Amino acid sequence: MSIATQFDYSAEFNTAFNEFKAIRAEESRVSKCGGEFIIVENVTRRLENRSQTCHRRFKNDLDRLCQTHWLRHNSMQPPTMQLEALKGYRCIFYILIEIGAPSKIDVFRENGLSDNKLPIDMATLKTKIRARDFETYFDIFFKAQLAWCPVQFELGMREKYFDRIMPVLEKTEIKPHRDGRGPRKNTASLYSIEVPEEMVGPTLQRKMASARFKRQGDPSQGYRYRFALKQFEFEKYSHFRNEANMFEHLRDKDGMVQYLGWYQGLETDGEGKRREYHNIVLELGDSDLYTAIRKLEPPVSPKEILSFWQAMFGISEALASIYKLQFGGVVYNTWHADIKPENILRVDNRFKLADPGEAYIQLSNADNRRQVARVTGGTRTYGAPEKAAYLDGKSAQEPSVTQTSDVWSLGCVFSIAATYVVLGPQGVLIYDRVRRAGLLEKTGETSDTFHNNGAVLSEVTEWHEYLRAVARKTDMYTADVLNMVDQNMLVAAPDKRFTASQVRDWFKGRLERSPIAIEEVPSRIENLLQAIELQVELEYEQHSGIKRHDTIIVPNRPASRNAQVSTEPDFKSQKELLDQGIRPTAHRPARGNSPNPPTLALVMPSDQATPTQKYSDYRYNQDYASERFGGHHSRIQSPLGNTTVQVPPPRTAVTMWEVMEVLEEHGHGRRLTSFLGKKKRVSVRGKAAWKTDSLTEHLDERLETEFRKRDIVYLVDNGTSMKPHWKHATFILEGLVWRSLGYDENGMELCFTDPDTPPAAFIKESRKQDVSTFSEAMKLAKPSSDDKKTMIVPELARIINDYTKAMLSKRRPKKKTIIVLTDGVWSGMNIRNTLDEHLRAVFQLLRDLHKDLPVRNNLHSQAQEDIGTIRPITIQFVRFGTDKEGYERLRHLDDDMTNYGCPDLIDTEPADGDVYKMFLGSLCDDIDRQQTMLEPTRTMVTSPSSISGSMPAGPLSREPTQEREHSFHRDSTPISPAHHALETSHYGGQFLPTNSRVQEASPLSLDPQELSASHYDTHSAQGQVLPLRLPPPRHGSMPVPPRPEN
């Protein structure tokens, strides 16, 4: 018997076929349009290896398939095709193997239907392939072939692909805004796309090497390339054609975003219909200039400042490079026509010009005269004065402008860049408002342009003077740039401006000029800074799942909390930047001579034995604070004279347990609905349960009065750290909602800190609400057992932005009180003072909106409003748990924000504390200052199994279920002389007593230990209570144990 008859070719083919199917499945991908495609290159590479099951008589697995598919039926005859003959027909062979007709490979070869003919249309198939036994395979082949011939991305691609699969693994829409007005109409959609490395041609790979990355967690473990895709609907062909032509003309110009090609194809739209689109493939930027300003810290050292202006020089080079173009020996002039920060992209740590969609090209005239053209594109903010009437819609006449109109726009960009270098992101915000205020005063119009009636806006040149005055002494470039901008770019007369080439040449000469010797950074610090920078980059890449091809990953290193989550290109709008509040600048002296920080005299009479005490207002000198913060206060001032306030006498605290009992007793069932006008008047405390003292009789009227025209928003922290307190938080929320039904005419809102909370849990304003709705929402929003790290700033900012946006509109919004149920942990907030900075910015913005400006000569404008008095927004924290860091964070927000000149609009109350303070603590100073006592030996009901105590554990803890007789509810009251609250710092450190010297704290300090200065011992040898000279005390401070007896 021959060897051929002994060898089981059928079994060998079946093994080879199963392994082929496995390889095909592993190399299969699904595009974002839903189509399957195969990485053919990987399939071939793997088949050209020999697997363990492959018999040694075959060269490799592909040879085994090539031979056994024939020999299994014709073992006595040699195969009709050898392995070498498959060259150029491998994809055809793979498709035929897949559909069960590998023997027809000879027919395809004979008719020249090779791989490069894929996909083959049905008519060609039926014309070329006439084998009778293949008729049943036509439809199968026609459908199967699409997965094996995805489009290859090539440099300079210019094809119509129709039904072919585009190998796009990720496609994320980018929504750049135009001056806050949303995406430009009648143009295109912009996307970030990711393409497998194998589907990118070698020339394009070399050109876009920096776009290569690896997404960690990708099962394919392959590299990808990221590009930008500008997609036009079929009806917008003329826009596509114009822009594609412009990109073709500007290809390879240094400083321009690179154009890679275009293609036309079919995609499934949102309605499931197949539609034709025109697409332009471009280099992808990391972000635009505005986003870079928002996210990156400004340059500080001389080298950093030099590097920044070198990057700006690159933009001037780009504009100059397209200023004149040559095609076939003919010279053309170019207008970009829409230079602005949003069209300047950050690519590989340099800035490039993008979006020539508004650009215009015109044949250059023979002489050297500055040529004009009718150019209609542009953005109002950065448009030159000669285009203003058309861009403002005041004239239908298309403007005739010279190329220096682009120079004006670039000058606006440099003006903003200089502001960023000198003052940082907040300075850019302020600059925008300065221009708006100037134009509003001069024209009565709301605008932020850099000109007025054809002339440069005076506020712009004055702002530049201000920048020169406050620039760092190490900044040797910004003042010169501003001089050039003022003298040669932001010039009203177009013919007096520099050309783009002159701007480039000025930059080149200035940057090459030898500057003053730069002091070298100590090598130790330089090395540390570089190490930190590398660490941040690694953390970002590990956390985001993106790994650059040249990145060294540190093994077994956890992702940093500081790492950014999103890895998509960030093209946030200018509007988002401008919607942020302006933060007060630390260490900036007020205009004129600032007074020394005052020291308050807290005088306590020796016979003081009752809870009623007279002492100085615990707020420090508001004049000093307002000068630093930029606002004013009309409340009680505390100069070095002994201005004193009467602190309300202590009263018995009203806990939520008592409220619930009384509400139930009065028949307010848990399905009580807030029908306005039908609400039964019920005291928070109620007279039926306990005797009402005179100190609480007026509080219900206060509650109803304060919330008559005020919105109530409940914000619940549902991070994982709140899970042990969830039953207690639900109980407290039910009580607060139950008590406040009907006060808010529009109904209350409920929202949560976790962005992944089910949308059904969020409750919007409604005139008909009941407690059960809020209870169900709490069930839906219950924290997960996973380590869900949340932060409070995004949701809090959204709530506050609703108010500020309404203030900017014609309607006057209702005031808001935001009641936050939280433990203060906020583990997703990586930078400790993030919320401080945000709230300080919010208070400054509120002052701007309410015209709460500094008082000059003690005269108030009629339109001037003190936000510390009108309290447009207040924040009330209801604290759960015993986390010390959370406790201190909330205490700091309650007590220390006034140290920075902020109005006292924040209060904190423990969850088992006084209900009146939960409602009114942030609204009413007297209630905020008033001490409360818990009922004598009253045992609290502890039905929620997870109720937490109101103080940190350890030596500072108290039992939540039992209170001492007539004990002060101290962790929500001002510092009392009886508490010796200065004996221990809020970080557990001991304050050292001093004999006779008073150490005054710096008002600019952020360190609680520095703010809590050393002090006199309160007991003299004779047992007399000596006066204290203290920095601003903090009410609501952490309770401390009594002083141990000697």
From TrEMBL:
Stretches of Polar residues bias are at 935-949
Residue ranges with Pro residues bias: 1029-1046
**Matches recorded under InterPro entries:** Kinase-like_dom_sf (IPR011009), Prot_kinase_dom (IPR000719)
Instruction: Describe the location of the Protein kinase domain by residue ranges.
Output: 202-507
Q: Which PROSITE patterns match?
A: PROTEIN_KINASE_DOM (PS50011)
**Single annotated GO MF:** ATP binding
Disordered: annotated span: 585-604, 935-1046
**Bias category Basic and acidic residues: which stretches?**
960-972
Put simply, this protein is called Protein kinase domain-containing protein
Q: What's the source species for this entry? A: Colletotrichum salicis
